[in-house]
């Protein structure tokens, strides 16, 4: 998990007392959603914790003390999808075009 703090970007209005936010990021869904649940008690939810356009689970809130929080839970790593003509079941590998001449090991 990563804990990060940031101040107000230049493009946003500066208001003393609300000029920072704290971000929790990682891939442990259970741990991070537990933090979200705790922080969201008596909080103002800016953006519910839900799947975001970039594939992660993301939410924003201001806790009961006035601290802005961002929580980002990384999406599980996608498995490589291969075209049937490039798949080799014997080696469990895929060979790309001769120009690239590379191989990708598939779990």
The average pLDDT value, as a whole number, equals 76
Backbone shape: globular
Q: What class, by secondary structure content?
A: mainly beta
Instruction: Report the radius of gyration as a whole number of Å.
Output: 21 Å
Number of domains: 2
| Number of H/I helices | 1
Largest sheet: 5 strands, mixed
Uncertain stretches: 91-107
In the CATH hierarchy, what is the class of the largest domain? Alpha Beta
Write the layout of secondary structure elements.
Layout: E1 2-7, E2 20-26, H1 29-39, E3 44-51, E4 57-62, E5 68-73, E6 87-88, E7 93-95, E8 103-105
Parallel strand pairs: 2-5
Antiparallel strand pairs: 1-2, 3-4, 4-5, 6-7, 7-8
Describe the structure.
There is one protein chain. With 107 residues, the protein is mostly beta strands. It has two domains: 2-73, 2,3-Dihydroxybiphenyl 1,2-Dioxygenase, domain 1 (Roll), CATH 3.10.180; 79-107, no CATH class. Helices cover 10% and strands 38% of the residues. The chain is built from one helix and eight strands, in the order ββαββββββ. It has one helix at 29-39; strands spanning 2-7, 20-26, 44-51, 57-62, 68-73, 87-88, 93-95, 103-105. A five-stranded mixed beta sheet has the order 1-2-5-4-3, with helices on one face. It has a three-stranded antiparallel beta sheet with strand order 6-7-8, with no helix packed on it. β7 (93-95) and β8 form a beta hairpin. The longest helix has 11 residues, at 29-39. The chain is globular, with a radius of gyration of 21 Å. It starts with a strand and ends with a strand. The relative contact order is 0.16. Mean pLDDT is 76; it is low at 91-107.
């Amino acid at each position: 998990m990563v804990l990060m703090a940031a101040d107000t970007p230049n493009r946003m209005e500066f208001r003393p007392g609300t000029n920072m936010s704290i971000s929790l990021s990682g891939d442990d869904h259970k741990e991070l959603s537990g933090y979200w649940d705790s922080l969201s008690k008596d909080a103002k939810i800016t953006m519910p914790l839900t799947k975001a356009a970039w594939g992660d689970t993301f939410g924003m809130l201001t806790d009961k003390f006035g601290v802005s929080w961002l929580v980002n839970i990384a999406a599980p790593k996608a498995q490589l999808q291969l075209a049937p003509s490039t798949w080799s079941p014997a080696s469990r590998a895929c060979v790309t075009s001769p120009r690239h001449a590379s191989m990708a090991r598939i779990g």
